[in-house]
Structure formats: structure tokens, C-alpha cells
Amino acid sequence: MNKINKVWTLMLGLLVTVGLLLPQRAAAETAGKEEESLDVTAMIFEHVGDSYYWHLTDWGNLSIAMPLPVLVYSQTSGFHCFMSSRFHHGHASYEGLQIAPEGSEYAGKIVEIGSDGQEVRPFDFSITKNVAGLIITSILMIWMILYCAKWYKNKDHASAAPTGFVGTIEMLVSYVYNDVIKPNIPKHTERYAPYLLTAFFFIFFNNLCGLIPGSANLTGNIAITVTLALFTFFTTNIFGTGAYWGEIFWNKELPLWLRPVMAIIEFIGLFTKPFSLTIRLFANILAGHCALLGVLSVIFLTAVSMPGVGNGVMSVVSVVLGIFLDCLELLVAFIQAFVFTMLSSIYIGLSQAEHHHEE
Amino acid sequence: MSLLIPESGLFLWMLLAFVVVLVVLGKFGWPIMTKMIDERAKYIDESIAKAKEANEKLEKIQEETAAMLKEAQEKQSAILAEAVNMRNQIVEKAKTEATIAGQKLLEEAKQQIEVEKEDAIRDIRRQVGLLSVEIAEKVLRQNLKSDADQMAMIDRMLDEIKINK
Asked: Contact B41/A222, CB-based, under 8 Å?
């Protein structure tokens, strides 16, 4: 107990020291360029949004960012393939392409200036920060799970259960498989388990990776969540049984006059389910990131508005709150992956409905 | 607003990446793990059932053993009781037999003694007779030194005979 108290005191002391020193530096840097106040909204949107660069940090005036490949297909000028460093951070155009400036309809995206001077968005499948992050996390995930699967070779059911990393993964797999998938989908479990487990680990892993500073915010991007939701939508409806469709369009348990009304509602429900899956995951993760960034911005905002001790105090508050929010986000990372998998299992389970045998 | 509109490029990449992850893990990852999880769960269930069965068997065996032990104890005490009984009987019988034999011997000894006594008495009588005859002879010789004494004697005896008649 005594040791823990000491560690706590040390940590708090360190925090206060850093909190009190940091603003002095910030104030020194901002001194002389008062007009260049921090645009919190832009900073947050830059962090949660996509980019043609992988921006790591700024060192003084030097921006440390990794250029990424641009892959664009334009109907007028064909394929383009080059590194994003050609744009010189949006200051230059290359091969008739440029990054749309602020205020444009396509701000931050690659556009082509047409013959009439209008901005035209070409088909853009560049390796952006998100795509690069996606590829990295996908490879990591495949490697991780295959590493675990390898452990099971030359083992049988009578062997001791795995420990360490494989044990942790197995615990999660077994939890999702036994407590989420099986109860909701008692029949054809083996048909759906691979998809649901992939979805769970994909979301969970990307949620966690998204919390690493400097990484891509994948699960907070609507394109990612809409893809996942569409997978659930198609898995649910392609393998839906006759009884399932019967319950949607002509539910015999309802009075006759209510059936057409319910058919319309149920039909709309088919699409609201994946829509809610999309928005829930994306909004939760995005909101978490925004809140975290907003809380940490307090340090820099107070550096301008109340330099000195006020800023120091606010910095400590901000860091403590930031740590709290980070812990909360760890929890949310799991909960959102769990909720997505749970709801997908329920939808799929409903689509496996059997005919009710009427007496 | 751009946050709410899915980028088609990222969407396609995501589709590709997710399909690859799904296919690879769906083929080489999850089935191995879920199969093992199922098998282990089954194995544990079976083991528990077996352990339960074994426990029941053990209990039964213990009960049987206890019953057997009890029976054996009962038998043992019965045998012991019988043995004690038999011993008592034997001792009793032996005692009786000994008593009878002793009495018989005593009887015989008594008879013998009686016979011997009679013999002895007869012997003594004879001796006494002989002695008395001798004594009588001696007395008579002494007393009948003179003729008068002899005559007196003969007379007395004749008188006695007469009286006895």
C-alpha cells in the first residue's frame, strides 16, 4: 500500500511540474505571433479526418509528415500515380490535380480543375492515412490471429489451455463465441462465427489502434463503419429464411389490417438496422476522439487566455481529465466492438427464424 | 460535413482489406480456435460427468465395503460367541466325566478297602483265635498243674455246657 501511495505522489508531482513548465514554453513560442492563435476546430478535424500525408508532429516550424501514394483516376486525364509530396502540403498542383483549399466543397480532397474552371472530383483511391492505417492494422490482425491459430497445432482438447497472449485472445474469442454468437445464432453457428469474430476483432483492434497518438482514426470514419454494417446487412438478408421474410412482409401473428402497415415499418427497419450500426460505431469513436482532443487543447487555449499559474492549473486538470477520457475510450473500444457484434448476431439470429408450428 | 459522407476510395480499400482479413482468418484462424474451444468445453463437460460417475461408484463401493465389514464383524462375533459356548460345553462335559470317573474310582477303592478290611478282620480273628487258644492252653497248663484243678475245671466246663444247653 505504501509503495503505491509513493508512486501516486511521484506521478502527481511530475504531472504538476510538467503542467507548470509546459505553458511557459508554449507562451514563449506564442509570444511574438499572437495573431497565430490555435484553431482548435481545425486541429481536431485534422486529427480525426483523413489526409494525403501521415502527419506525425511539428518540430518548431518543421512539419514531420510522411508522404503517401496518390492514386487517382480522372475521366478526362486518365490514371495518375505519384507521391503526395508533389503537392507540397497543398501549396502546389501536379498533373492538373491539386488539394482543394479551405472553403471549397471538397476541402482537403484532391480535385481536378475542369476546362470551365469548376472543381471536379476524380475517382480517388489514393493510399491516404486511413488506407495506410487500415493496411497496417489488417496485416497486424491477420498475423496476430494466425500466430494464435498456430499455437493450436499439435495440441488437442486434453492439452492445457493457452496462457499469455494466445490465452488472452482465446479468452476474447471464447467470450464472443460462447456468450454472444452461440446464444443468438443457435443454428448454423459455424457459418456466421467467422464473420462475427472478424468483425469483433477488427473493430476492437482498430479502436485500440486509433487511441495511439498519431495513428489513423479508422473506426471513427464512416466509410469503415458503413462497410462493416453492409456486411452485416448482406449476411443477414442473403441467408434469411422464408419464415424471416414472412415475418417481415406478412406477419401472421398480427391482425389482418395491421399487417400491411407492419410490412412497411419492417421493410424500413431492414435499412435502419445497418444505418444505426454505421452511425453508432462511427459517432461513438469520433466523439471520444474529439472530446479527448478538446480536453487536451485546453492547455494551449489557456496559454493564450490566462498565461501563468492559471494555465498551469488548467494544464494539470486537462491532463488528468485526458487520462480519464483515455481510460474511458479503452472501455468504449471494447463496448462498441461488443455492441456491434451483439447486434449483428441478433439480426442474423432473427433472419434464421423457423416457422412457428401452429397448433 | 465531409465526416458524414463515406469516401468511395476508402470504402473500396476497406472492402478489399476486410474481405482479405475475413477470408484468411475465416479459413485459417477462427475455425481452429472455435473448434478447440468447443472440443475443450465438451471434454470438460465429459470429464465432469465422468468424475461424477466415478464419485457415485466410489460411494457405492464404500457403502458395499461398510456393509461387508459390518457383516464380517457380525459373523466374527457370532463365531466367537459359538466358540465360547462350545468351550463351556466341553469344559462342562469334561467336568462331569471327571466327576463320574472319580466317583467310580472312589467306589472301587472303597470296595477294595472293604474287601481288604474284611480280609484283615478275618485274618485278625483267626490270629486272635489262635492266640486265644495258645493263651488258653498256656493258662490251662498253668492252672491245671494239680489233678484237683483239672477236675474242677472239667466240672466247671461241663456246667457251662449244661447251662448253654
From this structure: no
